[in-house]
């Protein structure tokens, strides 16, 4: 009886999610919808959106207006502000920044394990783009100022997406509860605008995409695309990917652009869940890859 009830709720949820499109779920995205519905039935909060890169047509959307925790994805906004400031004479790509004890943080990234204590701004941006380097993130935030990132975010017209804080090992009552938040609708718009060279200008957009193209985390949605995580900037089998991921306890999020021989898509998927056991986490990862398979079939 419990199994039948679960299946009934899953079907009902899938039908309701399909209404976000104003039509039935496209057949080539049914696998992803079913995966998301099953996860939602089991207590996972889901937000997702995919649009055709050329036409802007919405391919699917599930609660895409909801602001979700997105972990390091908010550092895309930091990279946009860094790209804008590179025009300043005293903030060039080769300007060297020193790390301090106050910047120190564990977690993602390689710089904390290296002996070199200072790096050029462009190298720090590359570390953030390639591996969500937490120490590089904090040094860049200190250099450009979180207020400047927030002002840039508002100027872009984003109201449900933001970089809220620096990276911290522990978040207390006086800290922002999350590193960043974002809505799938705004994030897909942002990446589409980057692809079109419309964020600040074509040069700045290209810089940001260049840093993001170094990303080595292909464990979520992009896990379905078959790329070599360390060598994929030039494309493979007619596919080209630029993506950014955000992962922390109970959060899995990804936004990206996937181009293929047939089409291009911009996508954003965020999931928030009780990360209390490994099977739950693995189901979330499996659901994300299911969406990736649908995206792959659309573009290839």
Automatic annotation (TrEMBL):
<dbReference type="GO" id="GO:0030655">
    <property type="term" value="P:beta-lactam antibiotic catabolic process"/>
</dbReference>
<feature type="domain" description="Beta-lactamase class A catalytic">
    <location>
        <begin position="50"/>
        <end position="271"/>
    </location>
</feature>
<dbReference type="GO" id="GO:0008800">
    <property type="term" value="F:beta-lactamase activity"/>
</dbReference>
<dbReference type="InterPro" id="IPR045155">
    <property type="entry name" value="Beta-lactam_cat"/>
</dbReference>
<dbReference type="Pfam" id="PF13354">
    <property type="entry name" value="Beta-lactamase2"/>
</dbReference>
<protein>
    <submittedName>
        <fullName>Serine hydrolase</fullName>
    </submittedName>
</protein>
<dbReference type="GO" id="GO:0046677">
    <property type="term" value="P:response to antibiotic"/>
</dbReference>
<keyword id="KW-0378">Hydrolase</keyword>
<dbReference type="InterPro" id="IPR000871">
    <property type="entry name" value="Beta-lactam_class-A"/>
</dbReference>
<dbReference type="InterPro" id="IPR012338">
    <property type="entry name" value="Beta-lactam/transpept-like"/>
</dbReference>
């Amino acid at each position: 009886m419990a199994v039948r009830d679960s299946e009934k709720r899953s079907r009902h949820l899938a039908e309701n999610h399909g209404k976000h499109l104003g039509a039935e779920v496209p057949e080539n995205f049914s696998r992803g919808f079913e995966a998301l519905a099953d996860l939602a039935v089991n207590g996972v909060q889901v937000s997702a959106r995919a649009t055709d890169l050329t036409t802007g047509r919405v391919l699917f959307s599930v609660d895409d207006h909801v602001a979700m925790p997105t972990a390091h994805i908010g550092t895309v906004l930091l990279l946009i502000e860094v790209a804008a400031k590179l025009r300043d004479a005293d903030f060039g790509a080769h300007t060297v920044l020193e790390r301090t004890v106050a910047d120190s943080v564990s977690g993602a990234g390689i710089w904390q394990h290296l002996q070199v204590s200072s790096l050029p701004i462009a190298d720090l941006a590359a570390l953030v783009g390639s591996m969500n380097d937490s120490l590089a993130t904090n040094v860049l935030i200190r250099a450009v100022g979180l207020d400047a990132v927030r002002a840039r975010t508002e100027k872009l017209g984003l109201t449900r997406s933001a970089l809220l804080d620096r990276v911290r090992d522990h978040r207390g009552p006086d800290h922002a509860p999350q590193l960043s938040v974002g809505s799938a609708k705004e994030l897909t718009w942002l990446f589409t605008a980057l692809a079109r060279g419309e964020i600040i200008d074509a040069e700045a957009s290209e810089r940001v995409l260049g840093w993001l193209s170094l990303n080595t985390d292909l464990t979520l949605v992009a896990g379905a695309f078959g790329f070599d995580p360390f060598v994929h900037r030039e494309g493979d089998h007619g596919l080209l990917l630029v993506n950014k991921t955000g992962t922390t306890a109970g959060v899995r999020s990804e936004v990206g652009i996937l181009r293929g021989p047939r089409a291009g898509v911009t996508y954003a998927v965020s999931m928030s869940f009780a990360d209390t056991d490994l099977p739950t986490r693995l189901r979330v990862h499996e659901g994300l890859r299911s969406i990736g398979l649908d995206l792959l079939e659309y573009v290839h």
